[in-house]
Amino acid sequence: MEHVGSWPTGRLLSMAARIVEGRWDRFLAGLDLTHAGLIALHHLEGGPLSQRELARLCRVTDQTMSRTIERLARTGHVGRATAQRDRRRVLVTISAEGSAALATAREEEQRLFAVEDYEYLRRQLIMLITGGSEPARDHEDQPGDDRDDHHHAETPPHQAAVDVVPPVLRGVGDGERPAGGERARVDDRR
After folding, report:
1. pLDDT (tens digit per residue) in 123-137
2. pTM of this prediction exceeds 0.85
3. CB neighbours (10 Å) of residue 15?
4. Are strands 90-94 and 78-82 parallel, antiparallel or unpaired?
């Protein structure tokens, strides 16, 4: 086998992504979660949201989000409640189990990358993905996030860098739309 140190950077990045994604998939399965479900939990951490709001934040269709929410409800990660002001509106809320799974996933993310300086790697990945056009932001609203201020008074420290396309924790659907402008497809029927 040829020495890894001789590989071009693109090949190194591609191989690292495949390795991390495989490990991440196995980890999430142990929590009875999918990438899509974890993305939803991430957004629900700021407070209850309607299915439509959650779909918009996750950049998926309402139908895709419906399947994601159904699976999260079956596994006990979220609950549903009728909105007090408009009884026709149903809000999705993160459960204690969902909050615990999200916290566990955030801890595992840093362990999974096993690099000397996780925050530096994160900043470099963000620059790579955004072409250097998106500086890291601390405690600001994220791109495309126009929820009312009562949903998120301050960006939590674990989100401080930027949420354009964060590392593997947030997965597909949380970043910019794929080339061509189509919505990200997320299969959450497991």
Report:
1. 998 998 888 765 544
2. no
3. 12
4. antiparallel
